[in-house]
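Let's study today's protein:

:::
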Amino acid sequence: MLFWNKKKDDLIIQCSVCEWRPDGEIHWACSCGHRWNTFKTKGKCPGCKKQWENTRCPGCGKSTPHKDWYKTKEEVEKLESTGDLVLRREKEVS
């Protein structure tokens, strides 16, 4: 399911690699120089209107597809309950 089709109240935004969650601060800057919170605009720069496909995580430094940051509560619960062992091992090493 695409993130923009998910109910806003049901969304959890977190990095798909390290599970860092946005804290409301401005961590992102566009190539045009504009700084903003990318999750307020679904990855679109308010300065030049560039649509960013990937988002860099301030927590782990990895760049992943912006759409992968948006998860439903059910998706997060499923990930937590089943546990992705490869992902968990990567986190332990980092």
Summary: Confidence is low (pLDDT under 50) at residues 89-94. The two ends are 30 Å apart (CA to CA).
